[in-house]
Automatic annotation (TrEMBL), chain A:
<keyword id="KW-1003">Cell membrane</keyword>
<keyword id="KW-1133">Transmembrane helix</keyword>
<feature type="transmembrane region" description="Helical">
    <location>
        <begin position="254"/>
        <end position="277"/>
    </location>
</feature>
<dbReference type="InterPro" id="IPR001851">
    <property type="entry name" value="ABC_transp_permease"/>
</dbReference>
<dbReference type="Pfam" id="PF02653">
    <property type="entry name" value="BPD_transp_2"/>
</dbReference>
<feature type="transmembrane region" description="Helical">
    <location>
        <begin position="156"/>
        <end position="173"/>
    </location>
</feature>
<keyword id="KW-0472">Membrane</keyword>
<feature type="transmembrane region" description="Helical">
    <location>
        <begin position="283"/>
        <end position="301"/>
    </location>
</feature>
<feature type="transmembrane region" description="Helical">
    <location>
        <begin position="66"/>
        <end position="86"/>
    </location>
</feature>
From TrEMBL, chain B:
<feature type="region of interest" description="Disordered">
    <location>
        <begin position="351"/>
        <end position="379"/>
    </location>
</feature>
<keyword id="KW-1133">Transmembrane helix</keyword>
<dbReference type="InterPro" id="IPR001851">
    <property type="entry name" value="ABC_transp_permease"/>
</dbReference>
<protein>
    <submittedName>
        <fullName>ABC transporter permease</fullName>
    </submittedName>
</protein>
<keyword id="KW-0472">Membrane</keyword>
<dbReference type="Pfam" id="PF02653">
    <property type="entry name" value="BPD_transp_2"/>
</dbReference>
<feature type="transmembrane region" description="Helical">
    <location>
        <begin position="322"/>
        <end position="344"/>
    </location>
</feature>
<feature type="transmembrane region" description="Helical">
    <location>
        <begin position="54"/>
        <end position="71"/>
    </location>
</feature>
<feature type="transmembrane region" description="Helical">
    <location>
        <begin position="133"/>
        <end position="152"/>
    </location>
</feature>
Amino acid sequence: MSFLSILALLISTTIIYSAPLAFTAVGGSFSEHGGVVNVGLEGIMTMGAFSSIVFNLTFGSFLGAWTPWIGLAVGAIVGLAIAWLHALATVTLRADHIVSGTVVNLIAPALGVFLIKVIYGKGQTNQINQSFGYSDVPLLDKIPILGKLFFQNTSYPALLSILVAVLSYYVIYKTRFGLRLRSVGENPQAADTLGLNVARLRYEGVLLSGLLGGIGGALYAESIALNFAVSTIAGQGFISMAAMIFGRWNPIGAMLASMFFGLSQSLSVIGAQIPVIKNIPSVWLQIFPYILTIVVLTIFFGKTKAPKADGVNYIKSE
Amino acid sequence: MKTTNNKIMIAVLSVLFGLIAGALIMLFFGYNPIAGYGSLISSAFGTPQNIGEIFSQMTPLILTGLSFLVAQQAGFFNIGMSGQLYAAWVGSVWFALSFPQLPSFVIVLGASVVGVGLGAIAGFIPGVLRAKFGASEVIITIMMNYVILYLANDAITSGFPNSIKQTVDSSNQVGNHGGISLKWLSDLTNQSSISAGIFIAIIATLLIWFVMKKTTLGYSIEAVGKNADAAKYAGINEKATQIWAMTLSGALSGLGGVTEGLGHYGNVFVQNSTPETGFNGMAVALLGSGSFLGVVLAAALFSALTVGGAGMPNISGVPTELVSIVIALIIFFVGTGYLIDLLIEKIKSADNASSNKSSGGGTKGRKKQLAETKKEAQV
């Protein structure tokens, strides 16, 4: 393979692997800017994956090529519902955020497989027929070199994830809603004094994370896994959380970090085709992103500050 | 005394609510809840073998429950128990199979030292990173779970020599040399996977109880967990204490891994994700609400549910996963104890009002106290 082909393959695989992480990590930053730690991203992704696969299998033959796209919307709605549970527990019922998130993570795969057994009578689903494939972006793919690298054999939802990250950056840092959300995550007392509804804003942050996390899970299922089983998501949500922290709670940073994780995931898949990298034992490629996260967290902790009131329940005094 | 009673009430009510919610789910999907729970109970306690299985499953749960408890006392949230357990599991089996010429007593001892040591290291690392650099132990332990998962799987598939392997991705049985199964116990329970692990777990519980309640280290851990700054002011080396607590926590999870390797399974095999037992330990500790007896009882309950749940599909057709849902819901109710607290509160104040002994302000005072304890728990 020529250098350019290798690079093109690497970029297209990376972007496909990073898109689900990017959606979910960007979602997580909404939740944490509002002050609610969301360890439950893994569970939210699992339910997104579950619902989109069931939808896809049920309606695939009627809806044709539109199925995976509507599947993303279904995943978003189900993700929203699961996130609502997390918001109810943490904001209204004052549960510990990590306990509640862990419950979401425990319940999602169990519930998913339970329902799959109820619906299909077996532990995992068939493969879906209508999946997100590779496609060329019209016009842009004609650009010399750049077209080949970025716009041939790529995936539309992956490009969408970049757009969503940029848009989320704008929402969090440039809009009134973003300012209010951040103030609730930094100093809920002060926000309350100014007449902001702390609980409502926190709910909105968590629900947005559910929406985007559901899309992330659905995208992973419909572009990479192509079926649903207990191990479909297997850690993607936790990696998204790492990407969010790595990206310093900034949606664009989270998206870039997701690309990095996507790159290292894709390396362990296509690494065998690439010179030099094929000589590295795959286990090192597998653990590299996690080790790097630990190192980055340790060295740059002073610079990667979470929102101040992140994880702290706000109890309005009577 | 009052708060202890409330904690017990919260635990009992959470279990009750979890089971009721499970029944509602069964009803909703057209299963008969009475038949469902009936089949659960009959499979859990129906045969001596399954009763043995319950003890076998309890063993690592008690140890990971203790592990979580020790870390929590120091103000840490150890999500890495799963990885710590797996590291120890692989390490202990590797040792036991690699030196078959040693007397079995030495094999067991050596394998335990290797396993517990690996678990302790896996706890020590996040402990140091948190204490010295302030890195979040939650994220670090989650990341370490994956690092350990891939390293350990790789150790089994390409690190283990073929002489100790049964298949490409599983090891030989530890068998008669390094195993900790007890013949009279296995015979008593119709050859279940019960082992001396259960006694190890009980002894560990007593030891940790002693360490936490009667020694300086235990006192320091508790003081640091309650308020690290105040502990430092009182002359406690708070960073060293935090590191000790996480190391001890990792060692306990490691001991759980040793009992899995030498007792319950008797070998080790490649995993898709780090063992669930590690995560369930957190559930056990939360339900046990900080008490040592609570941990043992919660571990017994969860094991009975799991063993019973495995028999459910054959008898009543209810998928096994229902049990995991019920367990998760139980933790949800424990975690949102605020709701149950309010309920208990309401019942009590109603009692007071009816007996005309209400001294006034009881409800409000209790609420305030509740808010304060919650705040304390957050720090």
